[in-house]
Structures are given as structure tokens and as C-alpha cells.
Amino acid sequence: MHSKNAAFSGLDFDLHLCNYRAVAARKKKSSVEEASSEPVLRFTDDHFWVRAEDGSAQFGLSEIGQQRAGEIIAVELPDVGDRIERGEVCGEVETARTVQEFSAPVTGTVTAINGDLDEQPSLVNEDPYYEGWLIEVELDDADELDELLSTDEYEEIVAEEEGG
Q1: What gap in Å lies between CA 91 and CA 77, rounded to an integer?
Q2: What's the per-residue H, E or C state across the chain?
Q3: Low-confidence residues of the chain, pLDDT below 50?
Q4: Could you tell me which residues come within 8 angstroms of residue 61 by beta carbon, excluding any fewer than 6 positions away?
């Protein structure tokens, strides 16, 4: 036998569900209003990700990109203070099979590079979106982010490349 405190009656459950939806809708609205200060994740069609927040951006090789590259054994990155231009070569990723140059997905001044990759380039393979990031820049023009792919657009491109 269940007491009223142990389980909702049908009416109590409906009222609880309506209240939950109202609270969730308020939270969703406030999170949309605050979204301008939250990180934005975008992608390039050559399998790099860009995470931007407050006028700066960090970028690296995507999960798909690192899988296709294979084991990363070295990276060459620009120096802090260097200026990088969207679409221009700014570094190299070396695997056991090849050395591949990569282009900057955004324009700006390099404010940090992932020095951990000097000793552990495999971080790009192990944790591409966090520990394996490559470069951080102060953005010249945050509107460039709008020209990059959303997560959904990127997933569609990957599916097409894989024949799906």
C-alpha cells in the first residue's frame, strides 16, 4: 500500500509535471539570454574545431580528424604573439605516415599554445577537445565564427564523406 507521500496520485502527478515544464521553460529562456557568454563550438570542413568565448578562441583537431590522421607523434605551432590569418598555414601535425600542414580557422593573435603537446603529442588523439587543443587566439573578428560549420552541419559533412 502506497501513502500519498510515497507516490503521486494522478492529479498530483499532472500538476507536478506542469510545474516541471514551466520551470524548465524558464531555465531554457534564461540560458538562451545568457548564451552570449557561453562558449560557441564550430567546425571546419577539414576537421578542426573552434571553441570561442569572450573574444578569444581555442582550436584543435576534431575527433574525426585525429582518427583519420592516425597516431600524432609531433606538432609544430606558431609562437605566442604571432598573428595568424584565416585560411593560411599556421602549423603542422606529424603522424607516423606523414606531415600535414594545417590552416588557421580564424584570424587573430596567438595568446597561448598547448605546450603539453611538446612532450605528449598523443593528447591530440586521446582528448582532442580538451587536453589536446592546439592554439588559442584573441579574435580579430568574431563574425568569422559565423562562417564556420555548426555541429549539425559538420556531422552532415562527415556522414556524406563516410558514404552515409
Answers
A1: 5
A2: CCCCCCCCCHHHHHHHHHHHHHHHHHHHHHHHHCHHHCCEEEECCCCEEEEEECCEEEEEECHHHHHHHCCEEEEECCCCCCEECECCEEEEEEECCCEEEEEECCCEEEEEECCHHHHCCCHHHHCCCCCCCCEEEEECCHHHHHHCECHHHHHHHHHHHCCC
A3: 1-36
A4: 47, 48, 49, 69, 72, 93, 102, 124, 128, 132, 134
* Sheet with 72-76, side-by-side order of all strands: 72-76, 89-95, 99-103
Could you tell me the three cell numbers for 115? 605546450
What is d(CA 40, CA 54) in angstroms, rounded to the nearest whole number? 10
- Model confidence pTM above 0.85: no
C-alpha closest to that of 140 among 85, 78, 61: 85
| Structure confidence by residue, pLDDT tens digits, 58-96 | 999 999 999 999 999 999 999 999 999 999 999 999 998
Q: Which residues contact 76 (CB under 8 A, 6 or more apart)?
A: 91, 92, 94
Residue entry with cell 580538451: 130
